[in-house]
Design brief:
The protein is α/β, with parallel strands linked by helices and about 450 residues long. The protein folds into three domains: about 90 residues, 3-Layer(aba) Sandwich (Rossmann fold); about 220 residues, Mur-like, catalytic domain (UDP-N-acetylmuramoyl-L-alanine:D-glutamate ligase), CATH 3.40.1190.10; about 130 residues, Protein-Tyrosine Phosphatase, Chain A (Alpha-Beta Complex), CATH 3.90.190.20. It is about 35% helix and about 25% strand. The chain has a nine-stranded mixed beta sheet, with helices on both faces. Cell wall formation. Catalyzes the addition of glutamate to the nucleotide precursor UDP-N-acetylmuramoyl-L-alanine (UMA). It holds the Pfam family Mur_ligase_M. One of its GO terms (molecular function) is UDP-N-acetylmuramoylalanine-D-glutamate ligase activity.
Length: about 450
């Protein structure tokens, strides 16, 4: 745990008592803050009270005496409208912050702070976070990994010299971190996502930009430049005098890390200084994973690892569950769990990596649907549609073979049957291009269910 000493003897309101909220409450109390915690769920309040965390309806507090409202990242800050607790804070002139901001303040108070890598982007941030942590561990560093992926940031071990904190940051967490200042800030890519929470793409991109714009003195911003939004951000951050390392899987770079003929190339001043082949690293299959690898390579170098060490470590990366995870092979049919593909841009990366696909898609739809995936429809033998998005996806697929499966169980059974009957190599791919919230609590539960169904097949 990281005790939040920056709030010692301060009265703090905390709203949101999920996993990160509970961790934050514990850290605030350990640091000497006077906490009043609340949640719209009575069960969550009861659970916190059972742990000894002081609870109470924040509407009954004297807000004039509060130092801050600490908000869980899942609670609306701005759109579709601010949560009632945020409105109370605004009326009283009380700052609204999150757990990543509290971590940043503690890190600055440490006599010899740890290095801090923060990773964001629309897609790929969890894989990049895990890959960077793997590289640093193999390189002999003391690594703490968490944030939006893994343990809550304040449940990690405290900052100290020689330690590296590697933290995935969602746009919600960045929005609650006004002084976010990583040693290495990573922005992988940007495409429309979470617009229900950010209002429009301009605001969403501006929030993401803050992570790389805030890298500390002497730090490095690692930025993907394969979309127009991120490329413009790289130019703006560089114009402020910060060091920027650009990464690309679509173009050669005079300065940066790019993909060429299946290998990462590090270039400085037009001179190629290192080449790292990715062929044979199954956990980094696909162009999207090449982008993740490029970002992790650039970040690990910025954190002090030699490229030769990075190259050896990258070959041993085991990959992540729910991200193009090969679950099982039955005959010539491979079953792949890509439940983390919660939007079309993420699903595109999986569809581009395979042929002869029996595609399971659908759930709670994101903006834009799957129209952008039309160039990959020829790779798909048949689609099996589930959830709320099924009718709209069927309309987009048009004459392409598909069926309305409804549920994941029915989709897996049908896809497995059809792939086996067709004969030859094939992939049954769960890459939903949708959020899970119509049928599952989160993408992990959806992926776990897929894995269980597949493993139960004869």
């Amino acid at each position: 745990m990281i005790p939040v000493t920056s709030m010692k003897d301060c009265a703090v309101a905390l709203f949101g008592l999920g996993g990160s909220g509970l961790a934050t409450a514990r850290a605030l109390i350990a640091g000497g803050a006077g906490v009043t915690a609340f949640d719209d769920s009575p069960a969550s309040v009861e659970r916190a009270a059972g742990e000894g965390i002081p609870t109470g309806d924040l509407r009954d507090l004297d807000w004039s005496g509060l130092a801050a409202l600490v908000l869980a990242p899942g609670v609306p800050l701005t759109n579709p409208e601010p949560h009632w607790s945020v409105k109370l804070a605004a009326a009283a002139g009380v700052e609204v912050i999150g757990d990543v901001e509290l971590f940043c303040r503690e890190r600055r108070l440490a006599p010899r702070p740890s290095l801090f890598a923060a990773i964001t982007g629309t897609n790929g941030k969890s894989t990049t976070t895990a890959l960077l942590a793997h590289l640093m561990k193999v390189g002999g560093r003391d690594v703490q990994i968490g944030g939006n992926f893994g343990p809550a940031i304040l449940s990690l071990d405290p900052p100290k010299a020689g330690r590296v904190h590697i933290v995935e940051c969602s746009s919600y967490q960045i929005d609650l971190s006004p002084t976010l200042d990583p040693s290495v800030g990573v922005l992988l890519n940007l495409s429309p996502d979470h617009l229900d929470r950010h209002g429009d793409m301009d605001h969403y991109a501006a929030v993401k930009e803050r992570l790389v714009a805030g890298v500390d003195a002497g730090g490095t911003a690692v930025i993907g430049v394969d979309d127009a939004w991120s490329a413009a951000i790289a130019d703006r951050v560089e114009a402020t005098g910060r060091k920027v390392v650009r990464i690309s899987v679509k173009q050669k770079l005079a300065d940066g890390v790019f993909l060429e003929d299946g290998a990462l190339v590090a270039s400085e001043g037009g001179v190629r200084v290192f080449t790292l082949p990715l062929a044979g690293i199954q956990s980094l299959r696909g162009t999207h994973n090449a982008q993740n690898a490029a970002a992790a390579f650039a970040s690990a170098r910025a954190l002090g690892l030699a490229p030769e060490v990075i190259a050896v470590a990258m070959k041993g990366f085991p990959g992540l569950a729910h991200r193009m995870e090969q679950v099982r092979r039955i005959g010539e049919v491979v079953f792949v769990n890509d439940s983390k593909a919660t939007n079309a841009d993420a699903a595109e990366r999986a569809l581009a990596s395979f042929e002869n696909i029996y595609w399971i898609a659908g759930g709670k739809p994101k903006a834009g649907g799957i129209a952008a995936l039309a160039p990959y429809f020829p790779r798909i033998r048949k689609s099996y549609l589930i959830g709320v998005a099924a009718p709209d996806f069927a309309a987009t697929l048009g004459e392409a073979p598909h069926e309305m499966s409804g549920t994941l169980d029915a989709a897996v059974a049908a896809a497995a049957r059809d792939a086996a009957a067709a004969g030859g190599p094939a992939v049954v791919l769960l890459s939903p291009a949708c959020a899970s919230f119509d049928q599952f609590p989160n993408f992990e539960v959806r992926g776990d269910r897929f894995r269980a169904i597949v493993n139960a097949l004869p």
